[in-house]
Amino acid sequence: MTQPLRDDLMVQQQLPARQERIRAWQHMVAVIMLNQTGRKPVKTVLPEFLSRWSRPSKFMQANPEEVQTVIRSLGMVNVRTKRLLKMTVDFLTWDGEDATMLYGIGKYGSDSYEIFFKQNYSVEPTDKELKRYLQEEIFSTT
User: Fold this and answer.
1) Cα dihedral across residues 21, 119, 10, 5: positive or negative
2) Is 2 a member of any domain?
3) Domain-embedded: residue 47
4) Which among 97, 83, 10, 84 has a CA at the least distance from the CA of 53?
5) Is residue 85 part of a domain?
6) Structural domain count of the chain
7) Which end of the chain, N or C, is less packed with Cβ atoms under 10 Å?
8) What is the CATH number of the domain that holds 118?
9) Is the pTM of this model over 0.90?
């Protein structure tokens, strides 16, 4: 059993990969998991997921039934599994620019990518946690 992520930090702040490209994939996995799910369950499931499939090449070899077992507690297991697999296929040829070009990544995922990877703080997120992060962590220190 892996340790859950810290509750006082956003999921996006706790991705384990050191290599930027791998962290970007882990980020997209996280935002798909966070879609229509609270952060607390994701903070338990994501470390287990990443302990099995830490990079896209490993995930492409995953057994879909095993993926479903790991993410089952998040709900929408068939939809999430499909999104994760299709997003990963897209990710392998993605240029790293527009995150909405990846399957299953919408405004939240794109805004999050802009903030955490491109340091683009001019985005106007509608998500309350991204808004809070910008206000408390970025704009309060400038």
Assistant:
1) positive
2) no
3) yes
4) 84
5) yes
6) 1
7) C
8) 1.10.340.30
9) yes
3-class secondary structure per residue, 13-58: HHCCCCCHHHHHHHHHHHHHHHCCCCHHHHHHHHHHHHHHCCCHHH
Amino acid sitting at position 8: D
pLDDT of the chain, 142 residues: tens digit per residue: 578 899 999 999 999 999 999 999 999 999 999 999 999 999 999 999 999 999 999 999 999 999 999 999 999 999 999 999 999 999 999 999 999 999 999 999 999 999 999 999 999 999 999 999 999 989 886 5
The helix or strand, by DSSP H or E, that contains position 107, with its residue range, turns out to be: helix 107-116
Give the amino acid at 73: S
Q: Which domain holds residue 125?
A: 11-141
**Is 6 domain-assigned?**
no
> Closest by alpha carbon to 113, among 50, 20, 37?
20
Tell me the one-letter amino acid at 126. T
